[in-house]
Amino acid sequence: MAERLTAEARRQALGGIPGWTDIQGRDAIGKTFVFKDFNEAFGFMTRAALVAEKMDHHPEWRNVYKTVEVMLSTHDAGGVTRLDIELATAMNAIAKVTS
Ligand code: HBI
């Protein structure tokens, strides 16, 4: 099972995934993606869902029209693990986030 990242490892990892931040009050990371429209937002969710399924590691997310709020944490580990960093990285790639 993936181990919880130390605060330092998590800080380092966050530096490599633009737009992702610590969630206050939870051992989780989060990001809000805003797309052109609902179609783009749902297309993102569809592709991200396939990656999550392949990883057997699933997001907590909320979609309102063109916005997708994502929160990642590894429940089994009680906090943020490399799986969350991996899925966040994949999500940025899907959304074509570069900076
Ligand atoms: N997704 N984010 C997240 N965190 C988990 O702990 C997790 C999951 N997806 C599936 C999963 N765990 C199962 O493998 C375990 O609950 C058995």
Automatic annotation (TrEMBL):
<comment type="similarity">
    <text>Belongs to the pterin-4-alpha-carbinolamine dehydratase family.</text>
</comment>
<dbReference type="InterPro" id="IPR001533">
    <property type="entry name" value="Pterin_deHydtase"/>
</dbReference>
<protein>
    <recommendedName>
        <fullName>Putative pterin-4-alpha-carbinolamine dehydratase</fullName>
        <ecNumber>4.2.1.96</ecNumber>
    </recommendedName>
</protein>
<dbReference type="Pfam" id="PF01329">
    <property type="entry name" value="Pterin_4a"/>
</dbReference>
<keyword id="KW-0456">Lyase</keyword>
<dbReference type="GO" id="GO:0008124">
    <property type="term" value="F:4-alpha-hydroxytetrahydrobiopterin dehydratase activity"/>
</dbReference>
<dbReference type="InterPro" id="IPR036428">
    <property type="entry name" value="PCD_sf"/>
</dbReference>
